[in-house]
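Please discuss these two lines.
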Amino acid sequence: MAFEYRKRLPGVEEILTELPVSPALAEVKQRRDREVTDIITGKSSKFLMVIGPCSADNEDAVCEYVARLSKLQARVKDKLMLLPRIYTNKPRTTGMGYKGMGHQPDPNEDPNIVAGLIAIRKMHIRALGESGLSAADEMLYPGNYPYLEDVLSYVTIGARSVENQEHRLTVSGLDVPVGMKNPTGGDMAVMLNSVRAGQSPHIFSYNGWEVATPGNPLAHCILRGAVSPFGHTLPNHHYEDIMFLRDLYAKAKPTALVNPAVIVDVSHANSNRQFREQPRVAQEVINSLKFAPDLRGFVRGIMVESYLVEGAQDVNGGVYGKSITDACMGWEDSEKFVLGVADQV
């Protein structure tokens, strides 16, 4: 074997003991869990908005962004639930480039996984404590989930991970809503199969244990667009796409999938990776809901890429609050956008 074993990772209990969540914050997180669960199950009519940077690369900037989001949440609390997008691991199509704070806590230094696990937990706890908003994160590495289990109210499974057996089975043991994205090729049946796997009970190997899981009834779909074999983006946020997915849910066999729901990612291939197009995509989704009001019980929300400063920069760009991965909307446009959505849903 060519593996060089560099450091043994600290156990989950070791890091949780070093960085505990206070009883008061645990109560805030549980309340937020109930709120987002009620949206996914249809008990609440609020519209969910998962919004934040493409990747969380700087603790101070992320926490400032989430603090602003908290003030905005107070203004739209009757219509929207805002879930900060604090993504601490970044999937890379070629495996190259910045892989997120969990891998590389300082983008300008070498990877350090031990320091990364500590850094991402510290940032999530700080953001929760300063804003009162529990967050969403992408589960890129299933084995790392226990390090953040007590701070997250929502989890996403990305387009490159949604066909992976370990991701699907791990979802079956989570007790918070999990959005399963369509794969990069766009196959919705694959996405529905992932939801079924997540909703079903399993026995499997996880973090050195044989575990049994009950299934997660809160697993659901995320439409994020696709890319053709020729490299062309293929949006799937249109009325016809949403109706097609709803029909797939209805036809799911051998047993029905519970809590049929979809979140529409208005970035990525749905906006052709043009961050300024996100409001237009969201408006098309809202127009579909107005045209077919019964879809309102199926489309539960949207996902948005947004940060303090619009656009993107190189890792060494040095602009505080500007993405070093995918380009994002800036704060002023994001605030206007959130308020506009709140006025229409």
User: Anything to note?
Assistant: Residues 178 and 219 are 5 Å apart (CA to CA). The mean pLDDT is 96. The chain has one domain: 12-344.
